[in-house]
Amino acid sequence: MALKELFDLHGRIALITGGSRGLGLQIAEGLGEYGATVVLTARKQNELDEAKAHLEGLGVRAYVYASDVSDFASIEPLIQKIHDEVGPIDILVNNAGATWGAPTVEHPAEAWAKVMNVNVNGLFLITQAVLKHCMVPRGKGRIINIASVAGLQGNDPRMAATLAYNTSKGAVVNFTRALAAEFAAQGITVNSICPGYFPTKMTKGTLAYGEKQILEHTPMKRLGTDADLKGLALLLASDASAYMTGQNIAVDGGITSV
C-alpha cells in the first residue's frame, strides 16, 4: 500500500465529542481534509452550527448533534441515532472535557463530580456504546482519547491547583492502556494524545494566570498552535498506526521531557 493510501480516510466516519471549537474542531479539520465524514457533538447548538458551516466551507462533510456527555441516559440513544442516520462510527475522538481550578482543601465536591462526569464517566459510556454498536460487530475501529500532560505529571506550585482535572486525565491515560490491551486482538486500536498548553476557551484562565511560567518551563518557548495536533490525530485515526495501541503521546513543546 502506498504511504498516502495509509492516511486516506475516505469512507470513514469520525465522531468527535466536544468538537464545535478548540482542539476538537482542529482535529475535525484534519480528519476531514483526509476524507473522513465528521460528526460533531457539543452542548451548544449555535456553536455546532457555526462549526458545521466552517467545515463545509473547507469541503468537509459534517453532521452535528447537540449532546451533553454528562447526561448519561442520552449517550446510548445518541450513538444509535448517529449509527442509523450517518453510519457506523469508524473513529471515535473523545475530546469533550471540563476543568476546575481551586486549592484542594477548598475544592467543591460538586465541581469534582462535574469534572469526573465529563472527563471519565461520560468518556467511558460513549466509548462503551461505540464499541458495542459500531466497532466490535465490525471487528475494526480507532479510538483516540484526548488526555493531557496534566495526566502525566503534577502541577507547578506556582500554577493554580487543578486536582480534579489532573486526576481525571490520569484516569484517561490508564483507561487508554487497559482498553487497548482488551481490544487489541479485535482490530480496534486505542491511543491518547496528551496536549500541553494550547490557547483555547478552556485554558483561557490558566494562561491568564500563568502563561509566563508555562513558557519558561516549555523548552520550545511557545504555546501549541492550531496545526500542532492535526498530524498526530490523523496518524492515530488512519491505517498508518495499525501497529500502535495503548500509547499516550505528549504534544507539549517538550514540557514532559524536563
UniProtKB/TrEMBL annotation:
<protein>
    <submittedName>
        <fullName>SDR family oxidoreductase</fullName>
    </submittedName>
</protein>
<dbReference type="Pfam" id="PF13561">
    <property type="entry name" value="adh_short_C2"/>
</dbReference>
<dbReference type="InterPro" id="IPR020904">
    <property type="entry name" value="Sc_DH/Rdtase_CS"/>
</dbReference>
<dbReference type="InterPro" id="IPR002347">
    <property type="entry name" value="SDR_fam"/>
</dbReference>
<keyword id="KW-0521">NADP</keyword>
<dbReference type="InterPro" id="IPR052178">
    <property type="entry name" value="Sec_Metab_Biosynth_SDR"/>
</dbReference>
<dbReference type="InterPro" id="IPR036291">
    <property type="entry name" value="NAD(P)-bd_dom_sf"/>
</dbReference>
<keyword id="KW-0560">Oxidoreductase</keyword>
<dbReference type="InterPro" id="IPR057326">
    <property type="entry name" value="KR_dom"/>
</dbReference>
<comment type="similarity">
    <text>Belongs to the short-chain dehydrogenases/reductases (SDR) family.</text>
</comment>
<feature type="domain" description="Ketoreductase">
    <location>
        <begin position="12"/>
        <end position="197"/>
    </location>
</feature>
